[in-house]
Amino acid sequence: MDRAQKEKVVDELGQIFESSGVVVVARYAGLTVAEMQDLRARMREAGGSVRVAKNRLAKIALEGKPGQAMTELLKGMTVLAYSEDPVAAARVAVKFAKDNSKYEILGGAMGETFLDPNGVKAVSDLPSREELIAQVVSCIGAPASNLAGAIGAPASNIAGILSTLEERAAA
After folding, report:
1. Is residue 12 a contact partner of residue 62, using CB atoms and an 8 Å limit?
2. Max CA-CA distance within the chain?
């Protein structure tokens, strides 16, 4: 790899570290090609990506970026799992680690916050962005439907009372 290619990789990694909601660093020694393809497919399905890069280049890319504390994790055969959604990459990485003992989560970062393996697991247990949006919408929608029902109820009650009075007057 010549200098220009290395600079391009450092720029790409810098973009990953700046724009990702979460970056998970894991050791992948011993994974087969099929297992690595499975990890990539799961991550892609969840809206994330997997990147294997030279640790030295990743350390250079991390200088001055959010999550700079991750540099201590970049030793040995490491892989980066990342996504814009702060939960997606962590959730897939934790699930994959449960299914495959050769995949060991070392930690990661969520913005400026350094995550140890337990922190990555805690992030994976959080509801995703879509789940949070659905919860907020249901909280907003429920009072509105209750309000519409409450407003409509007196009108139907008044109409019922008026029809009863009309029936009495006619009889």
Report:
1. no
2. 101
